[in-house]
Amino acid sequence: MTKALGGALKQTKLRPHHLLVGVTVLLASVLLSVLLGAAELGWQRVLAEIVAQLTGGASPLSEREAAILWQLRVPRVVLGVLVGAALAVSGAAFQGVFRNPLADPYLLGAAAGAGLAATLVITATPAGGPSVSVQLAAFVGALGGVGLTWLVGRSAGRDTATLVLAGVAVGAFLTAGQTFVQQLRVESLQQVYMWILGRLTTTGWREVLIVLPYLAVAAVVLCTCARLLDLLGTGDEEAAALGVHPGRVRLLVLTAASLATAAAVSVAGLIGFVGLVVPHLVRLAIGGSFRIIVPLSLLFGGVFLVLADMLARTLLAPAEIPIGVITAFTGAPFFAVLLHRRRA
User: What does 284-309 look like in DSSP terms, one character per residue?
Assistant: First the structure.
């Protein structure tokens, strides 16, 4: 059995050309998103500015235009890459741990916890609270929601089904608390909903520096554990026979994925469907091994959210569509098709 399993996994290894395609598509998406934006800088002038920065030539942009490009647009695009990568790789990890292709990063109460904490901060201050306070509250709330789910699940049982049910219960409880707070302060509803729908707002490079360390740690841990996720897919008994401790692997993977999710939610709000759609697209296009799905979800998660944000910024410019609306428009039909395929 071990030889057969090893042969099956060898056929699904990540190939160099997979990474090359992923990196190329990501760079092309980033360049396109940097060239286009609500501010009328002109894509030709933006491209000339990038070339000038690389070669040391004269800048074709004014000081104000250069500030818009390098302190607003470029950090926002980079933030989109990081948030998309964090949500997508976390979704892949959750799908591997729970052996369920419909799992997503918000399964264990991260979204509900972040939503309640952010709502409390927004409604507690007349101006909706400074962004730093909301981000910190959302980060702590997301981790608190996952931690509460873990405690409830462990107290009722040790299997993944119990943990999922605990996530449903904790999520419902926290969402009820958020709704109650919103009804007490209806004047803050618009600010709360703007945060819930998701938005990649930046004040320079600060938000990028917030997400980057957590994503870097999570990416290293999850890519290292990708082979173990494949082994978990064979069943706990089979994985234990091959020297894997299923409980420890799940705890490590869920902790890393939850940290990445919390960091993404804290700076971008509740952006849905990224963690569900991207791992599935990778699985359908290339293969079902998590040694493929996890690293490529990092790359194509960034591609997905960067392109979604570009649409959010440009479709109704100068107005801006919440990015969560764009991801829902693309993700919901995909989810319906996925359910139909599973039934077939």
Answer: HHT-S-HHHHHHHHHHHHHHHHHHHH
